[in-house]
Amino acid sequence: MKARSRFAIITTTIAALSLSALASAEMKSAGGGGLEFKLPGGTAGLTIEGKSDQLTASEAGGKIIVVAKLDCGETSCLKTGIDKRDEHLWKHMESGKYKTATLTVDKGSLTLPADNKESEGDASGELDFHGVKKTVKFHYNAKRTGSDYHIHGTTSINLGDFKIEQPSFAGVHTGMTAEVKVKFKLRD
Question: What is the tens place of the pLDDT at every residue in 84-108?
Fold first, then answer.
């Protein structure tokens, strides 16, 4: 076999392997993750709101995995703006024991847009929160810029479904349904 023929076979094989590796590459976190929550419906109209920037997302095995860190060492990663409330939240949610909340979604259930396009839809995934795994529904918006997907999602979570008792302090209670918004960026 001539040297040119061998070279052509080798370069064609390398190119094919490179393309298949690119096609199977999984998306990675590109930063910018965060969440906001609101717990309305409490005694005398009490509503607790908070946020966190401790959220990451990635892809593994055809699944999008979104992880919210809950334990920031003796306090909650969910910040309400009141240190004592953050401490109570950390204890109430047992964040020292259940350090994360993880949502796992089949990538195929999402409509991911082409470059410079947007999409939105409703989907569901498995939420592992407070030691309980449960399917939750959510609404999402996705925008693609180059190789980045900017994702925003919203859902409502009944705390009782995850074996979390109604938060209360000094006889004042919150509601039991948390409204949650998340955002993150994945890079293809």
Answer: 888 888 888 899 999 999 999 999 9
Task: Point out which residues pair with 67 in neighbouring strands.
Answer: 56, 102
The residues, any chain, with a CB within 8 Å of residue 96's CB and separated by 6 or more, are 71, 74, 90
Structure tokens at 139: 């609404």
Q: What is the pLDDT of residues 23-63, one digit of tens each?
A: 447 999 888 899 999 999 888 888 899 999 999 999 999 99
Boundaries of every domain in the chain: 26-187
Alpha-helix runs per DSSP H in 82-161: 83-92
Task: Indicate the DSSP class of residue 3.
Answer: H
**Is 117 buried (19+), middle (13-18) or exposed (0-12) by CB count in 10 A?**
exposed
Which amino acid is present at 136? V
Q: Which tops the pLDDT comparison, 16 or 137?
A: 137
CATH C-level class of 26-187: mainly beta
User: H-type helices in 40-162, by residue range?
Assistant: 83-92
